[in-house]
Structure formats: C-alpha cells, structure tokens
Amino acid sequence: MTVHDDLREPLVSAVRTAIGDDLRSLVSFTRDDFEQLYLRSDLERGADVEGFVGNERLWFDAVTAYGGSELGEYQFTVRAFTDGYVVRAIEGELGAFATTDRMPIAEFNEVASAMRGVLREVQENGVEQ
C-alpha cells in the first residue's frame, strides 16, 4: 500500500466536500512519485499531469524559504487561469493539488484547509512513502 492509496478516499472526500461539482481533478504527490486520485467523468484523460507535478514539487523547498516572513506561515497557493484554478497545499513531505472550474476565490481557504488536514493526518499516522 502506498501513501496515495491511503490518501485517495479521505482526500477526495474532503476536497469534493469543499469544492463540490467544480472539482475537475485531484493529484497527490511526494518528491518521488504522484497519483491522480480523481478525474471528473466529463473530462478526458491525457492532460500533462506529470508536467504539473514537476512544477508543484519545486515548492517542497520553497515552502520553508518563506519561514519567518512577516506575512506568517505559508498555507497554500492558488493559480488563476481563464477557465479555472489550481490550488496546491503541502504538508511536510506530502502535497496535493486540485484543478477546479471557475469559482469564488474566497472558497479556496476552505479547500486548502481540507487538503492540509488530510495530508497532515496521513503523514502523522506514519504511512509508507
């Protein structure tokens, strides 16, 4: 069993609860691997998930670079596109990102909080990575 197996059900559930039908896809990742945990049924496989993951992995080290900032502790990142968003959260050595349809930007705090909670819980339970 991998960390992604342990994340699948609780992370998909938490993010679907926070985002609802606007969730397009959900990917969990570590420094070494990744897995697409969810893809909405009306979307076709074939997106460059590995390219997205490569970019998101860069932030494992960058998260600590923000430590001690007068802005406080890093929490999550949202990227806006013409037709939707990418929201990424990292906890320790686990990360996840979700892609969404257009939705109110204020809702991303709830989404990221749900993601971080599941990532933290799975990591604290000592799951194999």
From TrEMBL:
A matching Pfam family: DUF7522
InterPro entries, A to Z: DUF7522 (IPR055944)
Superkingdom of origin: Archaea
Annotated protein name in UniProt: Uncharacterized protein
Organism of provenance: Halomarina salina
Lineage of origin: Archaea, Methanobacteriati, Methanobacteriota, Stenosarchaea group, Halobacteria
